[in-house]
Amino acid sequence: MGIDYGTKRVGVALSDESGRMAFPHIVLDNDGKLLEQLEKIIKERAVGEIVIGHSLDRSGRPNAVHGEVEELIGDLTLRVGLPIHLEAEQYSTQEALRDQGRTAQTDASAAAIILNSFITKKK
Fold first, then answer.
1. SS3 content of the chain, % helix, strand, coil (to 5)
2. What is the pLDDT of residues 81-110, one digit of tens each?
3. Which residue, 3, 28, 94, 122, shows the most beta carbons closer than 10 Å to its own?
């Protein structure tokens, strides 16, 4: 599962069964139900690993969202106990916008870009 974390919306992507390619799945509101919704997807889709976009500024230092991402990692670790990886996410949303324009699935597409980057490096 790939996650593009945002303060308002969270994009989620899933890989195919072989783990070779990521696809946009859903965009969730970043609200009090986020962890419950992520946990439900993880269980329903038998997710084995989670990849979260590592939020850094242009100079490679943690940005304002980084602390929230770390909190999400801690919460997910306690709830589901799966391996969680950080993958650089700089410009993933801009890449999704360039490829498809602004749609309801833009954040999920950014999550797929993050997950595909991780998958490619893992090969």
1. 40, 25, 35
2. 999 999 987 767 777 767 777 777 889 999
3. 3
Segment 107-122, tens digit of pLDDT: 999 999 999 999 998 8
Distance CA 83, CA 39 (A): 14
User: From CA 4, how far away is CA 87, in angstroms rounded?
Assistant: 10
Q: Which of 79, 89, 117, 116 is nearest to 10 (CA)?
A: 89
Cβ neighbours of 53 (radius 10 Å): 28
C-alpha span between 45 and 56 (Å, rounded) = 29
With contact defined as beta carbons under 8 Å apart, do 12 and 2 qualify?
yes
pTM beyond cutoff 0.85: yes
Q: Of 91, 85, 123, which Cα lies nearest the Cα of 109?
A: 91
Please say whether the structural domain 2-122 has been given the CATH code 3.30.420.140. yes
Whole-angstrom CA distances from 49 to 57, 77, 84, 88, 97 are 25, 11, 6, 16, 26
54/89 Cα distance (integer angstroms): 6
